[in-house]
Design goal:
Blueprint lengths: L16 E5 L4 H4 L1 H8 L6 E4 L5 E5 L2 H9 L3 E2 L6 H8 L7 H4 L8 H12 L4 H5 L2 H15 L8 H17 L3 H14 L7 H24 L5 H11 L6 H32 L1 H9 L4 H12 L8 E3 L3 E3 L2 E3 L4 E4 L1 H4 L34 H18 L4 E2 L3 H4 L12 E2 L8
Helix pairs in contact: 8-9, 8-17, 9-13, 10-11, 11-12, 11-13, 13-15, 13-17, 15-17
Length: 420
């Protein structure tokens, strides 16, 4: 562990600056910049958010656990700064209030009220029941892959599988999905948005979501959006107009982006660890455990949103003062040697694996069960169908960056015997 920050600090202003600077373009362009903060924990110290403001940064496992479970740390900043931040990122003023009504920015009673409406629909048991349908989608996409000389496993497999599954579950019609995918790619760059692209994407996604909701109001179906519409119509106090639209948008956006990254990073990482890949393909019984280890090791979600202190709170030997922000690096916490044995090693049969890849506490990822099932199905089906799959480019060309998900994953395919 590199001890770059004193442990007896009481204010953010007292702390020396660290290398964790999300406003630095290196976090997008230089793989080494991110690796310095995902390779393991450091003491809590001062960093910089993408907008240039100072933040505390927590990377050690126990510090991250405390931040994620601390009720006095809130998602929404004090005063009007959150609204101003959204406007500065290109969110149109007329829909800012709607974007301020998402689960990601809610806390306390409001957060639990909205969260409870979808928790049952996304329960582990209900997600497990989707496995046959997810498997059919995966095999259909693999059929299409077989005819391509050099397919891109992100564009041709990981992304369509993730978007198809979440859209079918929610009830987003097929003719919306390609447009939604394009907008989602733009919104995924929320920390470094292009205002000319970001505002139209946000507005278009909100408009399309309202269209889908109106269609379900007129003609309900057996899908999650129809369930939410029914709740809204029966009791608008449980779910307001803005909350309904924002919730549907967040579920689609978050429900496919994390899965896309998990599948892409999983394939990339397994190909870099041939002995582990051999173990994965030869022993189907380890699939669930293996995917959990891939979440820990590859960190499809590198960090969480900032949390803001409402009263002084001690984290890792420093005091986060009211109004100050702290950000946790999940990727580093999941490689903490105080919690994990040989944390830098990929071990698909790891027994002790209380990873924080999906967060913890009140904001624990609602779609964690679905993501794990999709990852298990997607990776198992892919390597069963193409056991000798290989990268078509040098790994350094496509290696993931800290703030930029893998953009492409070109491969050469070799089908199993009997399918040539």
């Amino acid at each position: 562990m590199t001890d770059t920050c004193p442990r007896a600090l009481t204010t953010l202003a007292d702390a020396p600056a660290s290398e964790f600077d999300l406003s630095d373009p290196a976090f997008i362009t230089d793989p080494a910049a991110g690796e310095r903060w995902t390779g393991g924990p450091r003491p809590v110290c001062r960093g910089r958010f993408a907008d240039g403001t100072d933040i505390w940064v927590a990377t050690a496992y126990e510090d991250v656990r405390k931040v994620l479970g601390e009720p006095t740390l809130r998602s929404r900043p004090p005063g009007d700064s959150h609204r101003e931040s959204m406007l500065s990122r290109g969110i149109p003023e007329d829909i800012v209030d709607m974007f301020d009504s998402t689960l990601l920015t809610m806390d306390g009673a409001d957060h639990m009220r909205v969260r409870r409406l979808v928790t049952r629909a996304l329960s582990a048991r209900r997600m497990q029941a989707l496995t046959p349908a997810i498997t059919r989608v995966a095999h259909r996409l693999l059929d299409d892959l077989a005819g391509k000389p050099e397919p891109d496993l992100i564009a041709d497999y990981a992304h369509p599988l993730a978007i198809i599954v979440i859209c079918e579950m929610l009830g987003v019609d097929e003719h919306y999905r390609e447009q939604w995918r394009d907008w989602s790619e733009t919104l995924a760059q929320a920390l470094r948005p292009n205002p000319e692209q970001f505002a139209p994407a946000v507005r278009g996604m909100a408009r399309m979501t309202k269209e889908i909701i109106e269609a379900r109001q007129a003609e309900p179906r057996d899908d999650l959006i129809s369930e939410l519409v029914q709740v809204h119509e029966e009791d608008s106090d449980r779910l307001t107009d803005d909350e309904l639209v924002a919730l549907a948008m967040v579920l689609v956006q978050a429900g496919h982006e994390t899965v896309r990254n998990l599948i892409a990073l999983g394939v990339f990482t397994l190909l870099q660890h041939p002995e582990q890949l051999k173990q994965f393909t030869s022993d189907p019984s380890i699939a669930a455990k293996a995917v959990a280890e891939l979440v820990r090791h590859t960190a499809p979600v590198k960090h969480t949103f900032r949390r803001f202190a409402t009263e002084p709170v001690e984290i890792g030997g420093v005091t986060v003062q009211p109004g100050e922000a702290i950000q946790v690096v999940l990727a580093a916490a999941n490689r903490d040697p105080e919690e994990f044995e040989q944390p830098q090693e990929l071990d698909l049969t790891r027994e002790h694996n209380p990873h924080l890849g999906f967060g913890r506490g009140a904001h624990y990822c609602l779609g964690a069960s679905l993501a794990l099932i999709e990852g298990e199905v997607a990776l198992t089906a892919l390597f069963e169908r193409f056991p000798d799959l290989q990268l078509a480019v040098d790994p350094a060309e496509i290696a993931p960056r800290y703030l930029l998900a893998m953009q492409r994953l070109p491969v050469h395919l070799t089908p199993r015997k009997g399918e040539e």
